[in-house]
Amino acid sequence: MSNGRPSYEAAQVENERQDAWARRDAFATELPPEGARAIYIKPSSPFTSGNLHMGHVRDYAIGDAYARFRRARGDAVLFGFGFDAFGLPAEMAAIERKVPPAEWVEACGERMLGQMKRLGFSFDYERAFYSSDESQYRWSQWLFLTLLEAGLIYRADTTVDWCDHCRTTLAALQVEDGTCWRCHNEVRLIRRPTWFLRIVPYLEENDRRLAELEASGCWDEISLSTQRYILGRSDGVEVELEGPGGAGLVAFSPHGGAVAEASFVLLSPRHPEVEAFAADPAVREQLDELRSGGWERSARDARSVPLVDTGADALVPWSGAALPVLVSPLVDARYGPTAALGIPAADEADATLAGRAKRVGEGPPLAPGSPPATREAVRYRASDFSISRQRFWGTPIPIVHCEACGPVPVPEEDLPVVLPRDVEPTGEGNPLAELPSFVETSCPRCGEPARRETDTLDCHFDALWLWVPSAVPPAERAERMFTHPDLQRWLPAERLVAGADSGGFVFDQRVVTKALRDIGPFAFMEAGEPFSGCLFHEMVIADGRKMSKHLGNVVDPDELVERYGADTVRLAVLYAAGPAKTLNWNDGALRFAARFLHNLWVYAQDRFAGLAEAPEDPEAAADTEFMRERLAKWCDNGVARITADLEDLQMHKAVRNVTRLFERIQDFEKRVVKRRGALSRADAEAQVAALVLLARTLAPFAPHAAEALLLAAGFDDGPDLPGAWPEQETLTVPV
Ligand SMILES: [Zn+2]
Ligand SMILES: [Zn+2]
Predict the structure, then answer these.
(1) Is 217:182 a contact under the CB 8 Å cutoff?
(2) What is the pLDDT of residues 413-453, one digit of tens each?
(3) Residues 6 or more apart from 664 whose CB is under 8 A from it?
(4) CA–centroid distance, residue 304 to ligand 1 (Å)
(5) Can you give the pLDDT at residue 676?
(6) Measured in angstroms, how far is the CA atom of residue 388 from the centroid of ligand 2?
(7) Given the DSSP bridges, would you call strands 168-170 and 374-380 parallel, antiparallel or unpaired?
């Protein structure tokens, strides 16, 4: 029936729709009236790398489909994000290009925003922000001070890699085979004071709340399992032993039934009482070596993990047995900074360690014959982590070091501590430490000359609250952030859509939300959970391997959009695999999506244009009434399925069901033509109504084509496009 109508011109259609959206500010966030449903959909926060990759396209295509679906259902939707703009990759890229990182980040962000708009993602772009903007990081500094005051940030020594030649500490990313990335000289480990975030007080609640999140049905299996993995919970028992000088020592074991067979005690090097067991100077030396030897990066295998015999014993009070006490970071890797019973008979790793320690196995086991007094206990592997880096491109830590007063917090009214924007780091030294204009200040407490902290915050710290700013109108962010009343409308976010590698960020965001609830600003979030729902998707690979420039298998979204159009790329990414599966990119899904859009476009245009010519024929209409009823039923079922798929964010299923509905509509026509030779007016009207409905269900996935089809069907261009989501009860195709 095609009468030579032009094929689907993606670029033209998409440009027109994007212009129309921009003209009417289609995705501006509106705060809903009191009591109405407000839904915040949080996509992942991109690093300002300069290019969207296919993983971003997957993330945003899922989030955008969900956002458009919820808008069509009448919900007020906030769909916004900010750039995770601080950090080492941006600093290294800027060093390579010899430009200030601020300049590089801005250029990258602009480019990425352009790519997102070209793909038609319906973000509220007015709310986009950069974590490296002064107006943003002043609140990172506020958060630092607030957590510091609450005792959730502390300073302790840790080991870091150091390059003597470049006079700088190095991140793991900058150490290549033990040498410096910049000068290739050997790197050594040094100890230096570092700031830590205390998360241990919230581990138990993060664990407990996980059951509630699971029960809600809004957290998918991948996101739940990442949270469990990071938590690293072990269930077992603990017993009271006696350390040197009669001090108590609580030891844990996951092998509740076998504690009587314990033959040694294994202490974490970070155990608070470890010093008591290291009275011997030789042992102390070994312990120091173990701590400064970078054990965090060392092998965690029981055969090679560092192991120190303290020479001291722990006494079993009720049997008088003495258990040798060993120290090893293997405890941390399994149960966190605690003490564990070594039970070679029940535990393979313990057996391996026992084989390496001379003293083990010489004495009697813990309590031969008599049941020891145990109580149920839980240990978590997750623990406090360092948040400061000796890097330039990060949030300055709002601390002043005074000789008389020690580290003094910068008063809130003096925030932000501004990071100079025109500095070009070279990778040598610490640029902030070498800027007298930055370093030299006076002590906020005593007024004497003092020095600013020159470490900056790791961008993981900025990410702790990167989900908050979108919910605050941009013009008001300088004045109020964590106490802005809009937060109470939008938070917790209804859904987080992010890559499966975001589990660590989410875990720590869940901790900080609980901390801010207890401190006050987030008291309205009783559960202390930032996200009511969460969908984690796997990555996009090519040829069965991770995409990399080195392998030459990088798929460039720009090239695909240029060639096939945004809607085809979006449909293909969604259709190719469910979120829980790694998407192995291939052209098959692209060809499928391109063919579908083209066929639907030509087919629907013909039917819309031909409607007026369909003859009124009451006799024929009566004869095909049962067919129109069947079409209505198909539409009903199709919409029910697509709706359920969208509610679950299973977009691959939803897209499949959209394409099936199109097949049904074509099938209807074939059957009527077979029976009557042609469509009567009643049949043609029913078919057009079904095509309109189909366009509305297509709109979340291929919004440009869907709206253009609705325009072709005679709807007005304006804020009512693409129209309300077809609800089942309103689905009456004219019969
Ligand atoms: Zn170097
Ligand atoms: Zn002072």
Answers:
(1) no
(2) 999 999 998 888 888 888 899 999 999 999 999 999 999 99
(3) 631, 634, 635, 638
(4) 29
(5) 96
(6) 22
(7) unpaired
